[in-house]
Each structure stands twice: as structure tokens, then as C-alpha cells.
Amino acid sequence: IFKFLGAISVDLGQDRIKPYLPTILTPLYRELNSNYAEQDPTLKNLSQEIIELLKKLVGLEAFSLAFSSVQKQANQKRAMRKKQRALQTVANPDIAARRKLKRHKNKAETRKRKIESLRPMYKAKRHRSHALKDLAMVE
Q: Residue ranges of the U3 small nucleolar RNA-associated protein 20 C-terminal domain (predicted)?
């Protein structure tokens, strides 16, 4: 898709690409700023190359305006999601408690896996799944 966006932008030319610049930059910006563990470095490099291509094609001023608007929009979305999560904690404490328990459980499992990888002889105790007990509501 990134190669397609680059090809379309070159094909459209300097004047006709300007209205579509924020739309094209959105996925490129998302890929550049992502911090996933299994991130593909080739995608990051490709997005960087296409951004450089767009800079040369459109000019630094127009590119900067579009890029800053995309950046601002992404930050607003991030802030909105954070605010909604905080409001959900207040509005639905049972859902928030379940999420918190799940996060703590995953954290403990991750810690056990890490210990096992560092010390292969050590076997951490695993939580046995009791189907009825896990289904019980948390008070």
C-alpha cells in the first residue's frame, strides 16, 4: 500500500497531490510512530522514503503544514481514547476491575516466562484453570 501511495503521488504531480496529502500521510505517520514489538523495519524504512519523496515533490512548506495537521489529529485521537478509558473506569467499575485483573494476570505470566527463559532449570508454578472459579464474578 505504501508503494501504491508513493506511485500515485508521483503520478498525480505537485499540484494535484496537495489536497490528498493529509490522507496519504496518515498511514505513513502511523507506521513511523508505532512502537509495536513485532514491527517490520522494512515498512518503517519504506514509509520514511515515501515521506522524503513527498517532501521533494510538494515542497517543504506544504508538506510541513500537512504533516503537522496529521500529527495534531493523531494526538487528539490518542487523548480522546485516554479520556474515554478514564471515564469508563468511573462509569463501569466492574469492567475496569476485570480489565485490571486480566492485566495483572498477564503480567504475572510474562514474569514467569521471563524467569524460565533466563533460568531453564527453574519451572515457575502455573495457574491451574478452574473453569467455574474463573467464571465467578469479581466483587
A: 1-116
